[in-house]
C-alpha cells in the first residue's frame, strides 16, 4: 500500500454503503481499512456480506474506536441524518477527512458547525451528491452553459420522488429522518439541481406550495413542492418537488433565454454505463404552428469502465483532494463545503416556510 493511498473508514454499516464499498474496491488509490457500527453484529454481518476480510479490515463496535484509529485518513458517514452533524464535527476534530451522505445536517445551525470544524482542522469535506460528479453533468455545463447555447437561465424544474409502501410511511419518524422529512431526504436533489443551474447563486426567497405538503400521522413531511425566486425582478425562478407518495421521478429541465435542456434521470442514470441529455437552442414554431423548426439534439456520454461511474468519479475527486493535503501540496477545497452549506440553507428555508403556513421565507 503506497504512502499516498487514502485509507478510509466507514461510520455506519447500512446496506446502502455496499455500493460505496464496491466503488472503493475498484479504486487504485483508496482502500477501506476499517468499518464501524454501534452494533458489532451489524458491522460483522456487513463485513462478511461485502467480502471485507478481518485480516485487512478492522471491525469496530463504536464510532469512537474507528475515529481513534491513527491509520484512518478519511471517513464515510452513513448513519441517520439525526446523528451526522455530531459525528462529522467529531471526525473533523480528529483530523479525518469527510465524505458525508446527504443531507449532512438537520438545519442551518448544524451545517455551520460542520463548516467551522472542517475549516479549523484543515480537513476536506464532500457530501455524497453523486450526480454532480457525473461526466454528463460536466458535459451539460460545457455544452449549454459555457458555450452560451442556453443563454441566461430563466426557469428550472426539478423533481425527486420515490414511492414508499403505505405500511412503511407511518414508520418514517422525525427521530429517524429529522424535522425536514422528505425535504431533506429527497428535496436535497432538486434544490441542489436548481442551485447548480443557477451557478450557486442563492435565491432571494422560497415558498412551499400549500396544496403540495403532505405528512403522516406523526407529522413527518412526506411530500412538498416549493418555488424559488432568484433575482429582485423575478427573472429566474425554480419549482422543486419531492415526495415519498409518487412514482419514481428524477426530472431536471432548464429553460434559458436562448435554449433549453432536459433529463429524466439526472440523479441516477437509467444505465450505469451510458447517459444522455437533450437540448434545443433557437427553437421556434414553424408557420401555422404545425410543428417545431428543429428536433432536440441528443448528447450521449459513455461511462463504461469500472472507474467511470458517477460514484467512481466522486471518489476519485475526493481522493485527489485528500492526497494533495497529505502531501502538503494543497489545502482543503472549500467549494464542496460551500455547495453543501447553500443547499442546506435552502432546505432549511423550505422547511421554515412549511412551518409558517407556507408563507414566503427570505434568505
Tags for this model:
alpha/beta; 16 strands; 363 residues; ten-stranded mixed sheet; single chain
Descriptive account of the structure:
With 363 residues, the protein is of the alpha/beta class. It has twelve helices and 16 strands. Strands 7, 8, 9, 10, 11, 12, 13, 14, 15 and 16 form a ten-stranded mixed β-sheet that branches. The termini are far apart.
- Please report which band the strand proportion falls in: under 5%, 5-15%, 15-25%, 25-35%, 35-45% or over 45%: 15-25%
Largest β sheet strand count, sense and barrel closure:
10 strands, mixed
* Count of helical stretches: 12
The averaged pLDDT comes out at 95
Rounded to an integer, what's the Rg over CA atoms? 21 Å
Residue stretches low in confidence (pLDDT < 50, at least 5 long) are none
Q: Which descriptor suits the 3D outline?
A: globular
Task: Tell me the number of strands.
Answer: 16
N/C terminus separation: 48 Å
| H/E element order | EHEHEHEHEHEHEHHHHEEEEEEEEHHE
Indicate the structural class. alpha/beta
Helix content: 25-40%
